[in-house]
Amino acid sequence: MYRVLFVCLGNICRSPMAEAVFRNRAEKAGLAGSIEIDSCGTGDWHMGKPPHEGTRRILDGQGISYEGMLARRIRAEDGERFDLLVAMDESNVAAIREALGSDTKAEVVRFLSFVPGARLTDVPDPYYTGDFEETYELISEASDRLLAHLLEAGKIKTAAI
Ligand code: 4NP
Protein backbone atom coordinates (compact mmCIF):
# COMPACT_ATOMS: atom_id res chain seq x y z
CA MET A 1 0.00 0.00 0.00
CA TYR A 2 1.31 3.43 -0.98
CA ARG A 3 0.03 6.33 1.12
CA VAL A 4 -0.49 9.87 -0.19
CA LEU A 5 -1.53 12.86 1.93
CA PHE A 6 -2.65 16.09 0.27
CA VAL A 7 -1.98 19.18 2.39
CA CYS A 8 -3.21 22.79 2.20
CA LEU A 9 -3.88 25.51 4.73
CA GLY A 10 -7.50 25.04 5.78
CA ASN A 11 -8.31 21.53 4.42
CA ILE A 12 -11.62 22.81 3.06
CA CYS A 13 -10.81 24.04 -0.47
CA ARG A 14 -7.73 22.67 -2.28
CA SER A 15 -6.56 19.53 -0.47
CA PRO A 16 -10.04 17.97 -0.14
CA MET A 17 -10.54 18.68 -3.86
CA ALA A 18 -7.20 16.99 -4.58
CA GLU A 19 -8.07 14.03 -2.32
CA ALA A 20 -11.43 13.47 -4.02
CA VAL A 21 -10.14 13.97 -7.58
CA PHE A 22 -7.04 11.80 -7.09
CA ARG A 23 -9.10 9.03 -5.48
CA ASN A 24 -11.53 9.19 -8.38
CA ARG A 25 -8.67 8.86 -10.91
CA ALA A 26 -7.11 5.99 -8.93
CA GLU A 27 -10.49 4.21 -8.83
CA LYS A 28 -11.00 4.68 -12.56
CA ALA A 29 -7.53 3.20 -13.15
CA GLY A 30 -8.38 0.21 -10.97
CA LEU A 31 -5.74 1.24 -8.44
CA ALA A 32 -7.91 2.13 -5.46
CA GLY A 33 -6.73 -0.93 -3.56
CA SER A 34 -3.07 0.01 -3.97
CA ILE A 35 -3.20 3.60 -2.70
CA GLU A 36 -4.40 5.14 0.54
CA ILE A 37 -5.39 8.78 0.06
CA ASP A 38 -6.13 11.42 2.68
CA SER A 39 -5.90 15.19 3.13
CA CYS A 40 -5.31 17.66 5.96
CA GLY A 41 -4.58 21.30 6.67
CA THR A 42 -1.72 22.98 8.47
CA GLY A 43 -4.20 25.30 10.23
CA ASP A 44 -6.95 24.30 12.61
CA TRP A 45 -9.75 26.80 11.90
CA HIS A 46 -12.03 24.42 10.03
CA MET A 47 -11.51 21.11 11.85
CA GLY A 48 -14.47 18.77 11.47
CA LYS A 49 -16.04 20.73 8.62
CA PRO A 50 -16.95 19.31 5.19
CA PRO A 51 -15.32 20.76 2.06
CA HIS A 52 -16.09 24.39 1.14
CA GLU A 53 -19.25 24.97 -0.87
CA GLY A 54 -17.17 25.97 -3.92
CA THR A 55 -15.20 22.72 -3.79
CA ARG A 56 -18.42 20.72 -3.31
CA ARG A 57 -20.01 22.43 -6.30
CA ILE A 58 -17.05 21.56 -8.54
CA LEU A 59 -16.96 17.95 -7.34
CA ASP A 60 -20.73 17.56 -7.71
CA GLY A 61 -20.45 18.90 -11.27
CA GLN A 62 -17.78 16.30 -12.04
CA GLY A 63 -19.70 13.48 -10.35
CA ILE A 64 -16.84 12.97 -7.90
CA SER A 65 -17.64 11.84 -4.36
CA TYR A 66 -16.44 13.63 -1.22
CA GLU A 67 -18.62 11.60 1.10
CA GLY A 68 -17.47 11.50 4.71
CA MET A 69 -14.60 13.92 4.17
CA LEU A 70 -14.10 16.27 7.12
CA ALA A 71 -11.28 18.75 7.73
CA ARG A 72 -8.48 17.82 10.07
CA ARG A 73 -5.14 19.30 11.02
CA ILE A 74 -1.78 17.71 10.21
CA ARG A 75 -0.47 15.40 12.98
CA ALA A 76 3.09 14.45 13.87
CA GLU A 77 2.39 10.82 12.96
CA ASP A 78 1.40 11.79 9.40
CA GLY A 79 5.12 12.05 8.66
CA GLU A 80 5.52 8.38 9.62
CA ARG A 81 2.30 7.01 8.17
CA PHE A 82 2.39 8.57 4.69
CA ASP A 83 4.95 7.95 1.95
CA LEU A 84 4.25 11.18 0.09
CA LEU A 85 2.99 14.53 1.38
CA VAL A 86 1.68 16.64 -1.51
CA ALA A 87 1.56 20.37 -0.71
CA MET A 88 -0.59 22.80 -2.66
CA ASP A 89 1.91 25.65 -2.35
CA GLU A 90 5.32 26.59 -1.08
CA SER A 91 4.00 28.00 2.21
CA ASN A 92 2.36 24.61 2.87
CA VAL A 93 5.76 22.93 2.38
CA ALA A 94 7.29 25.20 5.01
CA ALA A 95 4.38 24.66 7.41
CA ILE A 96 4.57 20.86 6.94
CA ARG A 97 8.29 20.86 7.75
CA GLU A 98 7.62 22.97 10.82
CA ALA A 99 4.77 20.70 11.98
CA LEU A 100 6.63 17.42 11.43
CA GLY A 101 10.20 18.37 12.17
CA SER A 102 13.21 17.51 10.05
CA ASP A 103 13.33 13.79 10.86
CA THR A 104 10.14 12.91 8.97
CA LYS A 105 10.62 9.99 6.59
CA ALA A 106 7.91 11.13 4.19
CA GLU A 107 8.75 12.91 0.98
CA VAL A 108 7.28 16.44 0.79
CA VAL A 109 6.57 17.85 -2.68
CA ARG A 110 4.57 20.62 -4.33
CA PHE A 111 1.65 19.22 -6.32
CA LEU A 112 2.40 21.24 -9.48
CA SER A 113 5.97 19.92 -9.54
CA PHE A 114 4.43 16.88 -11.27
CA VAL A 115 3.19 19.03 -14.17
CA PRO A 116 5.99 19.67 -16.68
CA GLY A 117 5.97 23.26 -17.92
CA ALA A 118 3.20 24.30 -15.53
CA ARG A 119 2.58 28.04 -15.75
CA LEU A 120 2.26 28.21 -11.96
CA THR A 121 4.26 26.67 -9.13
CA ASP A 122 1.50 26.96 -6.53
CA VAL A 123 -2.15 25.88 -6.75
CA PRO A 124 -4.07 29.16 -6.29
CA ASP A 125 -6.19 29.23 -3.15
CA PRO A 126 -9.85 29.67 -4.20
CA TYR A 127 -10.71 30.65 -0.63
CA TYR A 128 -9.14 33.96 -1.67
CA THR A 129 -9.40 33.95 -5.50
CA GLY A 130 -12.97 32.63 -5.63
CA ASP A 131 -11.96 30.74 -8.80
CA PHE A 132 -12.65 27.09 -7.97
CA GLU A 133 -12.71 26.19 -11.66
CA GLU A 134 -9.09 27.30 -12.19
CA THR A 135 -8.05 25.34 -9.10
CA TYR A 136 -9.92 22.26 -10.37
CA GLU A 137 -8.22 22.40 -13.78
CA LEU A 138 -4.78 22.47 -12.14
CA ILE A 139 -5.64 19.74 -9.62
CA SER A 140 -7.12 17.58 -12.39
CA GLU A 141 -3.97 17.79 -14.52
CA ALA A 142 -1.65 17.30 -11.55
CA SER A 143 -3.66 14.27 -10.38
CA ASP A 144 -3.25 12.54 -13.74
CA ARG A 145 0.47 13.35 -13.74
CA LEU A 146 0.96 12.15 -10.17
CA LEU A 147 -0.78 8.86 -10.89
CA ALA A 148 1.36 8.33 -14.01
CA HIS A 149 4.49 9.21 -12.04
CA LEU A 150 3.74 6.73 -9.25
CA LEU A 151 3.13 3.98 -11.80
CA GLU A 152 6.30 4.80 -13.76
CA ALA A 153 8.36 4.99 -10.59
CA GLY A 154 7.05 1.58 -9.54
CA LYS A 155 5.54 2.96 -6.32
CA ILE A 156 2.18 1.45 -7.23
CA LYS A 157 1.47 -1.45 -9.51
CA THR A 158 -1.47 -2.32 -11.71
CA ALA A 159 -3.08 -5.58 -10.69
CA ALA A 160 -1.73 -8.51 -12.69
CA ILE A 161 -4.28 -9.77 -15.19
P1 4NP B 1 -7.51 25.86 1.62
O1 4NP B 1 -8.15 27.33 1.66
O2 4NP B 1 -6.16 25.96 2.29
O3 4NP B 1 -7.38 25.55 0.15
O4 4NP B 1 -8.47 24.96 2.34
C1 4NP B 1 -8.30 28.06 2.84
C2 4NP B 1 -9.39 27.83 3.63
C3 4NP B 1 -9.57 28.58 4.78
C4 4NP B 1 -8.65 29.56 5.12
C5 4NP B 1 -7.54 29.77 4.31
C6 4NP B 1 -7.37 29.03 3.18
N1 4NP B 1 -8.84 30.35 6.26
O5 4NP B 1 -8.03 31.25 6.52
O6 4NP B 1 -9.81 30.13 7.02
Commentary on this structure:
The chain has 161 residues and is α/β, with parallel strands linked by helices. The protein has one domain (2-152): Rossmann fold. It is built from 6 helices and 4 strands, in the order βαβααβαβαα. The chain has helices at residues 14-28, 53-62, 78-81, 90-100, 126-129, 132-152, and strands spanning 2-8, 35-41, 84-87, 107-110. A 4-stranded parallel beta sheet has the order 2-1-3-4, sandwiched between helices. Strand 1, helix 1 (14-28) and strand 2 form a beta-alpha-beta unit. 40% of the residues are buried. The chain binds 4-nitrophenyl phosphate. 4-nitrophenyl phosphate (4NP) is lined by residues 8-14, 41, 45, 125, 127.
